[in-house]
Amino acid sequence: MYNTATQEEWFSKGERYATEINEMVEFGEKNGWENWEDQEPDDQREHLAVEVFEMLKKANLNQENEQFRAHFPPAHAPIIPLLKEKSQSIEQLHFITDRKIVFLTGTSYEKRQAYLLDHDQATPLDENIHAVGKSKQGNIFAVANANRISVCNGWDGELINDFELNMSADFGITEMTPFNDGSKVLVVSSDGIYLISHEEKKLIHPVNEDNDEEWTSQIDMENAALSHDNSYIAVGDQGYDHRILDSEGNTLGAIGPQSSYPHFCLFSKDGSQLITNSCHFYNGITIGISSDQYAGADIEAYTESDDFTFIDEEMRVYAGVTAKDYYILGDAYGYIKAFDKKGNRLWKYFLGSTISGMAISDDEETLWVGAHSGILHQLKLGKGQRDRHIIGDGDHYEEFRLLIWRDEPQIWKW
């Protein structure tokens, strides 16, 4: 069925590489990376990538995915050359029900395509969809096109609100979150962060406090989060500290970065904590402050304090979700890692490329992860690792990954 020599080389070298990487990481974390004296492991399968990809496509067409997956466990390093022309960001993942999610390909400044994923079948949606958001509680969905945001009770459910955008033609939405009652939508963009309702389109970040005539709302690394009960909003970007706001956008407190640039923020599911990440190149620092500190918070930049908890001191965080008792964060290096609210790392799991989006099922058993590689991963959490080709100690089972690549005739399942 397959080229035996190719299959054996792919399998044996993949298993060896994963083992050696895991051993290196374990050593570095226990003994300090400065004490690692060996060379970094080399995957050595790049020359097989095109042949294996062609076999993957044949397996898809012949509905032999499971057999192929057993013989050719997926890997990231060998296919990096294929990604240079084919990859695209997978963003704005939102859980709907059962094994169903909605997601988008493309960044805010690119032409996007929305998809509905039902089990392992991805169906393209209306090409005019620019952004999709979901409330923190309940099933309120917001869908944006060129000039409107429609808010529905449930995916394809009853329309409960319809807001005009009134933005410029090149306005791109980085992220958006409808309030739990559908009355407002938090919209994040490089043109500023807004609260949109029938009453107004309110710019809540940045704020021209000095009435500078040359001031602009243009920002980079724009990020925001809405608390699960919608009482609080966190906002930040490359040039401004993270701020904590009330539900109307009024400033309550500020959190200075502990690395260079504010980059990501997220509220815990139970509302007891806010975490903020700041980055420097591909690394970063994440801290957490408790909810009783939001009002009047004044965390000084680059200064250790009893007013916050170090959650992580390595990751530049690009995406994250919160479960009942912990966070799952995705970083620039392609890792997803779980932390509790005290900063204890629970597990790590390597997927390959910068993480661009995540969604978790309501029962917290299934995790979907999108990456800039143009690959969407579906994981069963805590089910046990599928094989010995996994990099990381997370005890998770990857059910499949979808290669949603540019200029391909279809989406390929691996």
Task: Write the SSE topology.
Layout: H1 4-31, H2 49-61, H3 65-71, H4 80-86, E1 90-97, E2 100-105, E3 113-118, E4 121-124, E5 131-134, E6 140-144, E7 148-153, E8 158-164, E9 173-178, E10 185-189, E11 192-196, E12 201-205, E13 223-226, E14 232-237, E15 240-246, E16 251-255, E17 261-267, E18 273-280, E19 283-290, E20 298-299, E21 309-312, E22 317-322, E23 327-331, E24 335-339, E25 345-350, E26 355-360, E27 366-371, E28 375-380, E29 397-403, E30 412-413
Parallel strand pairs: 16-20
Antiparallel strand pairs: 1-2, 2-3, 3-4, 5-6, 6-7, 7-8, 9-10, 10-11, 11-12, 13-14, 14-15, 15-16, 17-18, 18-19, 19-21, 22-23, 23-24, 24-25, 26-27, 27-28, 28-29, 29-30
Describe this structure in words.
Among the domains are: 4-71, no CATH class; 220-350, Methylamine Dehydrogenase, Chain H (7 Propeller), CATH 2.130.10. It has helices at residues 4-31, 49-61, 65-71, 80-86; strands spanning 90-97, 100-105, 113-118, 121-124, 131-134, 140-144, 148-153, 158-164, 173-178, 185-189, 192-196, 201-205, 223-226, 232-237, 240-246, 251-255, 261-267, 273-280, 283-290, 298-299, 309-312, 317-322, 327-331, 335-339, 345-350, 355-360, 366-371, 375-380, 397-403, 412-413. 43% of the residues are buried. The mean pLDDT is 96. β1 (90-97) and β2 (100-105) form a beta hairpin. It contains four helices and 30 strands. A five-stranded mixed sheet has the order 13-14-15-16-20, with no helix packed on it. Strands 26-27-28-29-30 form a five-stranded antiparallel sheet. The protein has a four-stranded antiparallel sheet with strand order 1-2-3-4, with no helix packed on it. The two termini are 17 Å apart. It is mainly beta and 414 residues long. The radius of gyration is 22 Å and the shape is globular.
